[in-house]
Amino acid sequence: MSKGKRIFLTVAGVVAVIAVIVLVKVLGNKDKSFREKYEGTNLESTAGEFGRDDTYTVYLNAHEDSARPQVDEIVVDVTKYNTSTAKDTEVKTDYEGEAKVLYQGDDGYTEWTVNVPESGMYRVYMEYYPVQSRGVSMERSFYINGVLPFSGTDALTFTRRWADRDAIITDNRGNDRPPVQVEKPDWCFAYFSDYMGYYTDPYEYYFEAGTNTIALQGINEPIAIRKLSLQSVTKLDTYAEYAAANPNVSGGADYFQEVQGEDSVARSAPSLYARSDRSSPNTVPYSVTSTKLNYGGGNLWKVAGDWIDWEFEVPEDGYYNITVKARQNYNRGMVSNRIIYIDGKVPFEEMSSVSFAYSTDWNNITLADAEGTPYNFYLEKGKHTIRMEVTLGEMGTILSALQDSVIRLNEMYRTVLVLTGASPDKYRDYKLPQVYPEVIAGMELEYKRLYKQLDDYVAYTGEKSGAIATVQTLAKQMEKFVKRPDKITQQFGGFKGNISSLGTSINSLSESPLDIDYITITGVNAKPTKVKASFWAKMVHEVRSFIASFTVDYNSLGDVYENTEALTVWITTGRDQSTVLKSMIDDTFVPDTGIPVNLKLVQAGMVMSATIAGTGPDIVISMAQGEPVNYALRNAVEDLTQFEGWEELLAQYSDSSHAPYWYDGGLYGLPQTQVYNVMFYRTDIMQEVGIAAPQTWDELIDMLPTLQQNNLEVAVPSTERKFGTTASPDLSSFFALLYQNGGSMYNDKQTKTMIAGEAGIKAFETYTRFYTHYGLPTVYDFVNRFRSGEMPIGIQDYDTYNTLAVTAPEIRGLWEFALIPGTEQEDGTLNRSCSSWGTCTMLLRQDDASEEFKQKCWEFIRWWGDSTTQTRFGREMEAVLGSSARYQTANKISFEELAWSSSEMKVLKEQWSYTVKIPEVAGGYYVGRHITNATRKVINEQEDPRETLLDYVDTINDEIEKKRLEFGLEVD
Description:
Elements: H1 3-30, H2 35-38, H3 56-62, E1 74-76, E2 87-95, E3 98-116, E4 120-129, E5 138-144, E6 156-158, E7 162-164, E8 169-170, E9 176-177, E10 181-183, E11 188-191, E12 205-207, E13 210-220, E14 223-232, H4 239-245, E15 256-260, E16 266-267, E17 275-276, E18 293-298, E19 307-314, E20 318-327, E21 335-342, E22 354-357, E23 363-366, E24 377-379, E25 382-391, H5 395-420, H6 432-435, H7 437-461, H8 469-483, H9 486-490, H10 492-509, E26 514-523, H11 535-551, E27 556-557, E28 567-571, H12 575-593, E29 597-601, H13 606-613, E30 619-624, H14 627-633, H15 646-650, H16 655-658, E31 662-663, E32 666-667, E33 670-682, H17 683-689, H18 697-709, E34 714-715, E35 722-723, E36 726-727, H19 732-740, H20 758-772, H21 782-788, E37 793-797, H22 800-807, E38 815-818, E39 823-824, E40 830-831, E41 836-843, H23 851-865, H24 867-881, H25 892-895, H26 902-913, H27 925-941, H28 945-966
Parallel strand pairs: 28-29, 28-30, 34-37
Antiparallel strand pairs: 1-14, 2-3, 3-13, 3-14, 4-11, 4-12, 4-14, 5-6, 5-13, 7-10, 8-9, 15-26, 16-19, 17-18, 18-26, 19-25, 20-23, 20-24, 20-26, 21-22, 21-25, 27-29, 30-41, 31-32, 33-37, 33-38, 33-41, 35-36, 39-40
Helix pairs in contact: 5-7, 5-10, 7-8, 8-10, 12-24, 19-20, 27-28
């Protein structure tokens, strides 16, 4: 045998052995159970007494022996409420088909008296009308005898009803455009239940026999109520019971009907409109080059409680089968669950959670039992509605337990943090078992709980997905900590990171997206169409898709006009934003004005180079705050004050929002977004350490010793503030201190900076002392530290609210936001001035354009900047991307029509009123750059703040003077 052949066989043998070992390991782990880790342990124990005592699980455990009385429905007369305690409540007559209803405003309070015949657990049922307002779900808190029974009942959510305004429209390139979503309110029903969906059954409330009071407190949006009642806790009939109760008929046995997923008639959120799929050759209807709206649901149909309705009609009374052509290709190793309603009711128990497993292809899922025998649904002749509602099913129980674990683990982390700090000395023995024996006991119990949840997850889904891997990692880590407590301080940072990762994993696991191509209704003798695409069909599809990538323009959106009179508008944000805007242009602006518009999505850096080359747009949207003056200095942008109506349009905006866009008496940009800081704080941790939210900077400084004694931190934006994974200078706190102390950025002529005055020096000294004297961190990940409780106070831009609301559900109800700290004035008032920043719209220089064309451009800008357009854009963006994408509009009128609650809006509007006018000037980029340099020098090199700032101010003013001379401007 040759040497080469021997080497080849040796290598092949080694590879084969490795492959076998890996395969054995994988197959061995697939069904591995951790039962021996927790078997025989009381997992309901309260070792260490960590965790919240107000959860629904704790409440149910406290009432596990209470009766579930089977009594007649206890109906509350909603029109007879306690008038002495009522707020923003009234009885309305002849309201939406009802003689009398109760109307409650978005911050109203209404209390009723109810007589309960027998002590025990009851469900609460309500029929309501979604009063048209800001278009978001209605939220209420529910009180029994003046008390919130448990966490979760403080934020009951009631959905609205949305539908397409028009039929699907096709643009001039053959692409379907999603119809505008409008509210189609009607009377709705709901049981009070968990807004997170962890508890799939309606809440059960304990009532003592006799007289009780119940009350609803408004949180968000007004609501009309026609019925409120207490109902007995009952179970749904099984399929066998359902079948036995229905008549013996045989009509419609050969009936066949397909209901397209994109043809839904109603939905709970405007984001659940029809969507387009070009990835599969058997999506109906199919196109590889054009955008065809050909399925329903999608990646945003994932939140528990979201529903979609479809209508269908059967020719005669009889039994019918239902098959759903569905695809769940979002979460590998997970299932998506849906509750099936027929005509507003779940027909039998098996329909309370129908599972759709992961698959990259479309599959026909016939609603059937475990053996595959289709369920026969009894339907009477005529129209019917089928609703599919997102539910977590059995996953909800697992996620609820994991959520409780996150809360307990964060408390353990903070307990150890008090002793060790965030970065413990790895060579020091902190004697944790002696100092905190309850933490060690708590960790031992917790890792066993996590192993149990891991086993439950694998048993439910059939495999161990990547999303659940953090649970095993954390369980192993704590198991090691219990055996070797000295490892806690050595791996403390990793422990915190794993807890944060677990919280993120819970968010991922709680998402249950699903695509629906169509629903088939068949008689018992008919069969649904086969849906599997052949190998050849897939291959042809991929080839056609590849060719189309060279021939189809995916950057131009909507209707494209070839004539030279069309406006060219560029937008620099994202595809979702551009798609929504183009849809609005095509269905509103173009029909109303007759002015054609071509919209193109580009990167922000392309605008300047394209303008210089003469190939730039007429209008550009979402430009950075500093760009209008930068372009104006170079005579590359139009002054908007030349157009009629600019003052009326600008009146819709605050003075601070457009201050950066003025130059030499001209307005060179129209505000689009405006963002500013507010103060976030954890109410639970503040209460633990015995302090209140600070009103002034002095109060904040005074509470630092208390916080730092507990190794807790405060976030004040710094020159190294962390945004995601990168650090970027943020001088907003320095600007706030500057203006609160009576200073300003520039002199009246804007020829030099004024930060070297006494107000500026005082502000700079206070600002730098936060880091040099008080040890505040300069780099931090606020969201994760706020979630863990390590950073219970932070000054952040108000958009952080949306991030926390979406990514940190485990601390809902445990945090608030308020005005930033202020500086007390001589008259005793507080000055809470702050800076702001945002984006704008610009009209680029039109030297060769006619006045008529310029006027058309202005008409577009005026339409875009008007409150009606801004409100619609904001609502549709939130509909498409969810609440985390809430629009930061600079339009004052539009802001009040977005999805903020009344209490949130009150804080935001008040802080908005404190935003100051900071202009952009020639050479102004040197101001931020050298304030950053001065700050770093003081922090890192312990230089004197006053002298350092004065040195850099000279450099700043030299650059401003140089730039003013360069552009022929007056200098001092």
